[in-house]
Amino acid sequence: MAAYGFLNLKDMADARITGTLTEAVNDAINAAVAQYNADTNAMLNLFADRTTLPQERYAQISASSLQPLDDNGRALPVKPSGYYNTAYPLRTAGSAWGANYVTRAKMTVGDAERATAMMLSADANWVKYQLLAGLFAAASYTFTDDQFGSLTVQPLALASDNVTYPVTGGTAATDTHQLAQANAIGNGADNPYTLIYADLVEHPNNSGQVVSFIASSLVATTRALSTFNPIADPNIQPGSATDVVIGDLGVSYPGKLIGYDDAGVWIVEWPSVPSGYIVSTMTGGDRALGMREDPETELNGFHKVADRDDHPFYESQWMRRAGFGARNRVGAVVTRIGNGTYAAPSGYAPPIG
Description:
Structural class: alpha+beta
Radius of gyration: 24 Å
Strand order of the largest sheet: 7-16-12-8-11-10-9
Number of helices: 5
């Protein structure tokens, strides 16, 4: 057994769930779900700020500089300025496992662990898909909310919609954070991490370190860059002429940290990223996405919502309600490699179910 909460029951995997084991298994399921939600929230915190708002005005940090003063001078008041409208969908999704009277009577601790793990895996897949679709969106779209009507959900920054974004040490301007590169990843002008770094660090709403999550299909060409530095492997003694990275990101993240590019970018292989794509963000500042949840806390997170017992059938029903839309529209960069025109990966173009 692998699910958190079931570790203390690993010697009872083949035992039927009867008597005192019933309470023990219920406690194990609750512990597994609580730990899963905590781990999922830690990962989501890198990409999304939580909100219960259906829409909001996102306030940007105004780029400004001190005013020159003499000994008797007094600075003129400066009013913070700059905002744009954002909105967030809210979707309901669920799964269930079932049994009949006979199979439920024969259910073992191991069966309960596998059923719980299946529910948690289903939610993890759904959340990753929804999150990535929010990042990959190439254009705004309308989400029809049952309570608030038509909401315009925004993508990451797109110059054609004429929204301006503050630039540190410069003048606010339109920007595009949906990049495309026709050539394969390579040295010099074909190294996408140089532009990714520049596009993220220039905005005052962002801070921390730059990290790129790359598809497995891009690992070999990324490792081949002359500017790539691999993570030190404790099982391998590197040669004297080899640079290795000994630092860490210091935040929770999905995937496997594989190295650091001299452009200033940490590289993480995340197999969930579609082939040929890169998702990049920063470890501090406002998150790129808003993750909308209900204001009622009992509706938040992934959880079991009901047991349905209709002899001879039994169902365990599970649910999540959440949705993602761009918030800090310059808080992330998505990059397509192998095609000079950006488009969302197949199956990730909103609106999605």
